Amino acid sequence: MTDTDSADRRERVRRRLRADHAATLDRVWRAADAVTAEWASPPADRAAVVDPLERRLGEDTRQELLGLLSTAVEALGETLPADPVPAPPYLVVTSLGPVLRATLSEWRLVVELRVFAVDRDGDRATYRRGDDTLRVRLQ
pTM of whole model > 0.90? Predict the structure, then answer.
């Protein structure tokens, strides 16, 4: 697959996810807003980001994220080899936000919903609310 083909496929997936799953994406963005609102100051601890985000997302939104993964796979003309579950390897909540993964026939699809960012100052890192990036990678 050429770089142009890969970029076209990634953009096709992003457009489809934004069109078909706007409400789910909005719930993820709002969950991140709620987590950030609880911070007295920017945390340096990963758990201070991941644990509250997982709670805010809840089971319903995690299930909806699996639908988002299925749509992404479909947009590539592929099918999932198994029914995904709201747990690794299909769904992981990281310190930057939810990550969805699927191993397909020719590549691995990774969809990242980046809701947090890390600011580094020497050895110190702190988290802040990110810019709601929907990142699609084909590896």
Answer: yes
